[in-house]
UniProtKB/TrEMBL annotation:
Entries under PROSITE patterns matching the protein: HD_GYP (PS51832)
Entries under CDD domains matching the protein: HDc (cd00077)
Protein name: Chemotactic transducer-related protein
InterPro entries found in the cross-reference section: HD/PDEase_dom, HD_GYP_dom
Record-annotated HD-GYP domain positions: 1-192
The species this protein was found in: Vibrio variabilis
Gene3D superfamilies from the UniProt entry: Hypothetical protein af1432 (1.10.3210.10)
Bilayer-crossing regions: none
UniProt-listed PANTHER family: CYCLIC DI-GMP PHOSPHODIESTERASE PA4108 (PTHR43155:SF2), CYCLIC DI-GMP PHOSPHODIESTERASE PA4108-RELATED (PTHR43155)
Length: 207
């Protein structure tokens, strides 16, 4: 065992022999924070009591995906740090929205996004546009080790469903398609094998 794992064990002697279940959640599975996170009520994304929970039953009970709540917080909290770092900079008045714009591309139109849970009416236009750009780039990128890059038709289909579910701005998505920006980006930045036949009317109908 690593020294970090050993440090989570009590100093009490363990009596043997003893019965040990095949799968269990133990106190030593709870990983304390190395540094207690700063907690602000303005963020809907909040750190849990522990930095991680390696409980076997706990992790086997994850309903969707492969990450538990603690791991998902670590990944998603980059948005909180983005906002905090940018807010600490002395931007001129005409650039005061930079922290919000940079930290809002995981927000959703219905307010169920993060880190602030901001609804569409409170999101500046550039922030809503960045959300579309971020999703499109993530779906088509071929440098993500955890997933295979989507073909253009697959990416746009997924995005049309996100518009339908009120996660992306429908008007901006329509402009994204009708302006041809999606294709211009694809031709310059993704593998040619990903660019298949597209009929934008199919995705406009979905949205």
């Amino acid at each position: 065992m690593s020294w970090e794992e050993l440090a989570r064990f009590d100093n009490q002697d363990i009596q043997v022999p003893r019965t040990e279940p095949l799968l269990a959640d133990h106190h030593d599975h709870l990983v304390p924070w190395e540094k207690e996170p700063k907690r602000e009520s303005r963020f809907v994304l909040q750190a849990g009591e522990y930095q991680n929970n390696q409980g076997e039953m706990y992790n086997l009970s994850v309903r969707k995906g492969t990450l538990n709540n603690e791991e998902r917080y670590i990944i998603n909290s980059h948005m909180i740090e983005t906002i905090r770092m940018l807010e600490s900079l002395p931007f001129p008045r005409h650039m005061k929205n930079v922290p919000l714009l940079a930290g809002s591309h995981h927000e959703k139109m219905d307010g169920t996004g993060y880190p602030l849970g901001t609804i569409a009416s409170e999101l500046p236009l550039p922030a809503r546009a960045m959300a579309i750009a971020d999703v499109f780039e993530a779906l088509t990128s071929c440098d993500r080790p955890y997933k295979k890059a989507k073909k253009l038709s697959e990416a746009l289909r997924i995005m049309s469903f996100m518009v339908r579910d009120n996660h992306l701005d429908g008007d901006l998505f329509e402009l994204f398609l009708t302006s041809g920006v999606y294709l211009e980006f694809a031709q310059q930045n993704i593998d040619s094998s990903q660019i298949d036949d597209i009929h934008i009317e199919d995705y406009l109908a979905q949205s």
